[in-house]
Amino acid sequence: MITLLLLLMGQAQPSTPKPLDFIRIAADKSSFETDGKPWRPMGFNYDHDDAGVLLEDYWDRDWDRVRGDFAEMKALGANAARIHLQLGKFLDGPTTPNRAAMAKLRLLCQLASQIGIRLNLTGLGCYHKKDVPQWYDALDEKGRWDAHATFWKTIAREIKEEPIVFCLDLMNEPVVTGGKRQPGDWLGPPFAGKHFVQHITLDQANRPRFEIAKAWIDQLVKVIRAENNKHLITVGLVDWSLDRPGLTSGFIPEKCCQNLDFISVHLYPKQGKMAEARETLLGFKMGKPVVLEETFALACSAKDLGQFLQSNQADLGGVFTFYWGKPIEQLKASKTIGNAILSEWLTEFKALTLNQK
């Protein structure tokens, strides 16, 4: 009888949860997997709130808000969130990491683990020009790249054992200058008050632009891999990175992205030009997964964007759109055109995530 009771007691003990596995490239080289099962990132860029305030500017004073936003993203069907880390918040100098920011990042990883949302950590942001450190703008090309290396060396080490981190994105929308820019003029033009584009050099100096892009990528990949071989590495490319006539970023995928684990492209399809958007998307395929890291119903209807994502699912390793802290119910109640568009799109995106489960 005692033996039977002991056996029953043993059976009643809760099983230990299986440790979370890291995300890896699947055998087909066009998708992802974890723990031997397919995994597809469907999530949000969580870069700022609806008033344009960046995450690092409110996470110290309003952590409950961050927690609530993560819960809402999860309720919308997300399994991933893209976090935009600002260089000036994470570095106090070219070789000096900000330890308080690093500690906060670890807390964010803990929160993401609790909610069940993988993290795309995008680095080196300079979105608010007034907050860019003077020491950073004063650096020459080599000094700037070395500061980038300090940033990523530290981040890679800090989150090395965090499987909740999906990937490390070297920079949002980097560009190689064609020709020469003025001293300190590192940022692209603002969009909605934020500088999302950043130049990695001020002087092309007769070098092929794609070679500059490749050298920068390879340097940072080498730095990260010296500390961390567990997380995937990518970079957020503008859709005008392809080797085509007209404006280009210099980051030609097939010429500079060989050492990245997957390709991330930012693409906003236009109404009536879905075929062109598909052609652009396919232009980024080079034997690696392609993730649509930014998209939104900016120049087309929510329904048409949803149909575009659905019809191109076989060529997409994953999708990130945007969440700025307002649930669908609040957006509907506000009665503004912008919030109505956002509400319609979030509803469409939620339906997409449900269809893919």
Distance between the termini: 46 Å
Strand content: 15-25%
H/E element string? HEEEEHEHEEHEHHEEEHEHEHEHEHH
Q: Specify the CATH homologous superfamily.
A: Glycosidases
CATH class membership:
Alpha Beta
Mass-distribution shape = globular
Number of strand segments: 15
Radius of gyration, whole Å: 21 Å
Identify the strand order in the major beta sheet.
4-5-8-9-12-13-14-15
Percent range of helical residues: 25-40%
The third-level CATH topology is TIM Barrel
Q: Please identify, by name, the CATH architecture.
A: Alpha-Beta Barrel
How large is the count of helical segments? 12
User: What's the story with the biggest beta sheet?
Assistant: 8 strands, parallel, barrel
Mean pLDDT comes to: 94
Which structural traits does this protein have?
single chain; 357 residues; alpha/beta; TIM Barrel; eight-stranded parallel β-barrel; disordered N terminus
